[in-house]
Amino acid sequence: KEKVKITKEQQALMKVVVEAYNRHQIPQDVAKKLLQEQYSEEENFLLLTEMATSQVQVLVEFTKNIPGFLSLNHEDQIALLKGSAVEAMFLRSAQVFSRKMPNGHTEVLEERIRKSGISEEFMTPMFNFYKSIGELHMMQEEQALLTAIAILTPDRPYVKDQQAVERLQEPMLDVLRKLCVLQHPQEPQYFARLLGRLTELRTLNHYHAEMLTSWRMNDHKFTPLLCEIWDVE
Ligand SMILES: O=C(Nc1ccccc1)[C@H](C1CCCCC1)n1c(-c2ccc(Cl)cc2)nc2cc(F)c(F)cc21
User: Fold this and answer.
1) What mean pLDDT, rounded, does the chain reach?
2) At 211, is the secondary structure helix, strand, or coil?
3) With a 6 A CB cut-off, is 179 part of the ligand 1 pocket?
4) Cβ(147) to ligand 1 under 6 A?
5) What is this model's ipTM?
6) What is the rounded CA–CA span in Å between residue 214 and residue 187?
7) Which of 66, 145, 166, 226 could pair with 176 in a Cys bridge, judged by C-beta atoms 3.0 to 4.6 Å apart?
8) Which of helix, strand or coil describes residue 5?
9) 77-108: string of b/e by CB count within 10 Å (b at 16+)?
10) 27-82: pLDDT as tens digits
11) Which atom of ligand 1 lies closest to the CA of 118?
């Protein structure tokens, strides 16, 4: 049985990605706010647009710390960010939702989100994804690497030099695969399950614009950045 070993370079790569990932803290505040009180649909929509806007800014900071990202062609950097921003937000939402919370808090959080104004039809796919992420009990290294891998998806629309993106994504996949083998020796399929979540994440991508425009309220106002990233208005 070959001994899986994480090399010095891979340790360094993981450290850079995890530190950059831990610098973005917004969603914890969202969960805390939502647990404090039930907001109106308008207030929830405003909270979402504000949070999603700042999440994009934080995502850009995270992405700039991914080794090699800034040496990619500039249009491709934009294409990768635009292509992954919504997925990164849902992945982050899932991670916040599945964090260990005191008894009953997750149920309150779920209730508040169910009543936030999102149309009924999106609840099932969204919470199914949140729960499937929760079942994985991901470590923060796995969360950070999975987010970086989602960002470095070569086949996003308008990416010109896909090989250059693959060359950045591959080392992340390698170290994540080794990490999964070392951390979950009893579950040889764990790495495959993690990557399967990225496929499920793409399906949420299809819904995202409609989730916003169908928010139970009239006159949806978006920030310019969200219009760019979320394909709304
Ligand atoms: O803010 C949010 N998510 C966020 C995450 C990361 C960074 C920035 C924002 C919103 C809330 C939802 C309730 C109203 C207020 C915003 N949010 C979502 C969510 C996001 C987009 C759409 Cl279209 C639908 C739901 N799922 C969540 C799970 C959580 F545990 C959770 F705590 C907050 C969650």
Assistant:
1) 93
2) helix
3) no
4) no
5) 0.98
6) 40
7) 145
8) coil
9) bebbbbbbbbbbbbbbbbbbbbeeeeeeebee
10) 668 899 999 999 999 999 999 999 999 899 999 999 999 999 999 999 999 999 99
11) 24
pLDDT band for position 231 (cuts 50, 70, 90): confident
Nearest CA to ligand 1 atom 25: 113
23's tokens:
């610098």
Collapsed DSSP state (helix, strand, coil) of residue 212:
helix
Confidence class of residue 25 from pLDDT cuts 50, 70 and 90?
low
- Closest-CA residue, ligand 1 atom 30, reads 97
Per the listing, tokens 């989730």 go with 211
- Under a CB-based contact definition with an 8 Å cutoff, are residues 204 and 126 in contact? yes
How wide is the angle at C-alpha 56 spanned by C-alphas 18 and 206, nearest 5°?
105
Q: φ, ψ for residue 82 (rounded to 5)?
A: -60, -40
DSSP string, 147-171: HHHHHT-TTSTT-S-HHHHHHHHHH
Q: Please report where in the chains the tokens 């404090």 appear, as a residue.
A: 36
In whole angstroms, what is the distance from residue 128 CA to residue 174 CA? 28
Per-residue pLDDT at 1? 58
Read off the DSSP letter of residue 102. S
pTM of the model: 0.94
